[in-house]
């Protein structure tokens, strides 16, 4: 009897723990944290997108100017964008006048329609159109409606920019100067970073990952390294990355992403050149420097494989 009671208790405790974990995941809300004067970010969880986290896996940021609010990225589902708008309204009654899209990946743009409906002007790099018109975008949306249900559904839509940019653009919004700079093709063809010179804040999108292994995908890591070198030339005090915590050691963090990409290229480049099979080369490579980083297990192997294919196709 005592034994039975013990087992019941233990499973009850496990159930409570399970429910608590589910509740935490469900309730991961975008909570703004101030990172510089009038500048806030919300930080997504370090995980792959799921129904449980409502695709809250990327960051967004906003700056309150004299007249309005400028938002960088729109989060990974409309419900998150709605919550972000609510959070902004708690800080300021000013409207969101602009949303800058750092790139058209689902976790950064599925919330766009909420800002669009609220009257914001959306700005993005014009290569974002390539994604919007691609089969990938359509297939991804289809898959997301299942994988991210009910947060992404048949009402979720991809929203094009109101203003497409193909060269650096200086804008002044409510007295605040900002510079939109194409940084791609790096993580994507349409990478755009936003630089606020008076704040020394750089919104870097996914060109900079922090405290986690980047998702390389089909990116050209050679160009990506060049983009990081450009960003290293900025005098940034604060970097808001597309994923992970804010960086106040801008240089070191840029360097980390750069080192990881360079390491992938070196290891996989050698293997491709020697025509070593990928499996063998992967197993032989010493990953210890990066292995403790979050999402290493989820991302490193596929990053290495994509890099291997890239180096086969276009050796450095
Ligand atoms: Zn991302």
Intertermini distance: 70 Å
CATH-defined fold name of the domain at 29-249? Metallo-beta-lactamase, Chain A
Global outline: globular
Q: Assess the beta-strand content as a share of residues.
A: 15-25%
What does this structure look like?
This protein is α/β, with parallel strands linked by helices and 316 residues long. The protein has a domain at 29-249: Ribonuclease Z/Hydroxyacylglutathione hydrolase-like (Metallo-beta-lactamase, Chain A). It has helices at residues 2-26, 78-91, 106-109, 112-117, 128-132, 135-147, 221-232, 250-273, 278-284, 296-313, and strands spanning 33-36, 39-42, 60-64, 69-72, 96-100, 121-125, 163-165, 169-173, 176-182, 192-196, 201-209, 238-243. It has a 7-stranded mixed sheet. The longest helix is centred in the N-terminal third of the chain and has 25 residues, at 2-26. Zinc ion binds at residues 58, 105, 107-108, 206, 242-243.
Write the layout of secondary structure elements.
Blueprint: H1 2-26, E1 33-36, E2 39-42, E3 60-64, E4 69-72, H2 78-91, E5 96-100, H3 106-109, H4 112-117, E6 121-125, H5 128-132, H6 135-147, E7 163-165, E8 169-173, E9 176-182, E10 192-196, E11 201-209, H7 221-232, E12 238-243, H8 250-273, H9 278-284, H10 296-313
Parallel strand pairs: 4-5, 5-6, 6-7, 11-12
Antiparallel strand pairs: 1-2, 2-3, 3-4, 8-9, 9-10, 10-11
Helix pairs in contact: 7-8, 8-10
The structure holds zinc ion (ZN).
Please outline what is shown here.
This protein has about 325 residues and is of the alpha/beta class. It is about 40% helix and about 20% strand. The strands form two sheets. A seven-stranded mixed beta sheet has the order 1-2-3-4-5-6-7. It has a five-stranded mixed beta sheet with strand order 8-9-10-11-12, covered by helices on one side.
């Amino acid at each position: 009897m005592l034994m039975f009671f013990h087992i019941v208790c233990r499973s009850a405790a496990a159930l409570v723990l399970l429910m608590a974990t589910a509740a935490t995941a469900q309730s991961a809300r975008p909570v703004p944290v101030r990172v510089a004067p009038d500048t806030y970010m919300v930080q997504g969880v370090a995980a792959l997108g799921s129904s449980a986290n409502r695709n809250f896996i990327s960051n967004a940021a906003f700056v309150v100017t004299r007249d309005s609010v400028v938002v960088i990225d729109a989060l990974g589902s409309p419900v998150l964008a709605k919550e972000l708008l609510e959070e902004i309204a708690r800080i300021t009654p000013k409207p969101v006048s602009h949303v800058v899209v750092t790139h058209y990946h689902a976790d950064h743009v599925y919330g766009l329609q909420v800002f669009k409906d609220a009257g914001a002007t959306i700005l993005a790099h014009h290569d974002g159109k390539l994604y919007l018109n691609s089969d990938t975008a359509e297939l991804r949306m289809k898959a997301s409606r299942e994988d991210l249900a009910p947060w992404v559904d048949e009402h979720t839509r991809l929203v094009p920019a109101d203003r497409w940019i193909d060269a650096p653009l200086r804008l002044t919004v409510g007295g605040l100067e900002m510079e939109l700079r194409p940084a791609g093709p790096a993580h994507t063809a349409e990478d755009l970073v936003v630089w606020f010179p008076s704040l020394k804040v750089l919104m870097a999108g996914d060109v900079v990952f922090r405290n986690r292994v980047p998702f390389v995908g089909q990116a050209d890591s050679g160009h990506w390294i060049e983009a990081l070198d450009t960003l290293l030339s900025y005098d940034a005090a604060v970097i808001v990355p597309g994923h992970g915590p804010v960086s106040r050691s801008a240089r070191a963090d840029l360097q980390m992403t750069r080192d990881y990409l360079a390491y992938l290229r070196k290891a996989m480049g050698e293997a491709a050149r020697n025509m070593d099979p990928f499996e063998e080369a992967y197993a032989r490579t010493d990953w210890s420097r990066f292995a403790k980083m979050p999402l290493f297990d989820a991302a490193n192997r596929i990053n290495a494989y994509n890099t291997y294919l890239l180096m086969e196709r276009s050796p450095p």
